[in-house]
Amino acid sequence: MTDVAVIGASMTQFGERDAWIRGLLAEAGRACLDDAGVDPHEVEHLYVANMASGEFEGQTGVPNALVSDLAATPAYTQRVDQTSASGGAGIYAAWQSVASGAADLTLLVGGEKMTHRTTGESTDVIASLTHPVEYKHGVTLPSFAGLAARLYLDRYDAPRESLAEVAVKNHANGALNPHAQFQREIHVETALDSPMVADPLRLYDFCPVTDGAAALLFCPVEHARAHTDLFAVVSGVAGATDTHVVHERTDPTTMEAVVDSGEAAFEMAGRDPADVDVAELHDMFTILEFLQLEGLGFAAPGEAWRMAADGRTALDGDLPVNPSGGLKSKGHPLGATGVAQAYELYVQLVGDAGERSVGADVGLACNVGGFGNCVTTTVMEAG
Amino acid sequence: MTMEAYRYADGTITYPGHPVGPDCCEPVDTIDLSEYTAEVLTWTTASVSPPGVREPNHLAIVEFDVDGTPVRAIGQLTTGDVAIGDEIRPVYCDQLRDPSAAIRETDSQDWDGYRFEPV
User: Fold this and answer.
1) ipTM summary value
2) Which residues does B18 contact at the CB level (< 8 Å), separation at least 6?
3) Is 0.95 surpassed by the pTM of this model?
């Protein structure tokens, strides 16, 4: 297989945007091509990571629209939908297209337009991924998080404050990210005093509803070397799927798809958790940062809650986690999220992360769909 | 109406039932979980609900013991006054949420079921 590089990356401003899905995707796509200095007509494959533009906006066929909007005809295009993990799945698809030799230049653009809907409506669109026995009881992704968090805190005798420490850390990082939806620091007390959403989780344990898009441009490593000195290499990428019905899993505090995709990505990259300098994890809810740190092997079961409190996952810690601000602070436009995670790894690896630079050579991103239903883990390294 | 779980050829039981069990075995029997009690594994109260869902919405994952075989289920609680380890029994509810307000098509699934009531 061909070794695959990322030679360009972009993300739009995340937050409440006037633009609709087509505008957001085109903005990110154009910026990515400009970043790489590539003409749109050179793009051979164009993947669009998006969960629900039809449900949110009544706009389907976004891949076709984007090819036109970027003047990238006649590039082959398709949509990649894996709910909240659409972006990670898009990375996997884009990597496959180049690694297989099917394309020499593949653009991935992920995006979602959500904020025109109420929080309840957005929550219902996302909850529609659940099994009928879950959906009819009004089970939502936030309620899954509340169920998992209560069990985790009880089982491991972890303090409630440990979850607030994750929010504090990721807000501090987001304050350094000009693209983040929330660019302000918070205190532990702010998080602990915020309104209850899914007991024991409060408002500041949750990511916001967000509009935004991000993009990555892939090509063979040998082409990247001829094109630029600044690129990243996708050294490992793998996906895995867990049960559709969440309560059927053996341990509600273990996300097996995180474990499986992480092990496969590490094996492909020839790396292990100790090699990772920076990680972007899917902190849609603060508890998910613990579950992924443990599932990926960065912490033993029941031990990840100590890492944020001890400062180990801060920008100056031994494993900076979510230097972008994470979903918690940067925002979570569903289809964009996995792509934006890799955007953060890219700027960290090529030395373009500004104040939040951690000096990384190896980065990992974990993109979670549903409540661990489908997961893609990506390992990227400096080229 | 029953709270129907499937038993598969290898002895495992799931709720809901599936075309095949976790180890690809065919279903061989059904069990009505509403005849059993269960233990609360974890619970939450969701304060913000999607359209058509009661607010607040008390939810739990519970574990039944069907003659030595564990079977889990998720569902609404009749009260938020519960704790991990409490014993519950299923009680029938003819409409768990208002399907006319949901994004999912009303005719695509059923909307009645069982809430969990502390014993």
Assistant:
1) 0.98
2) B6, B27
3) yes
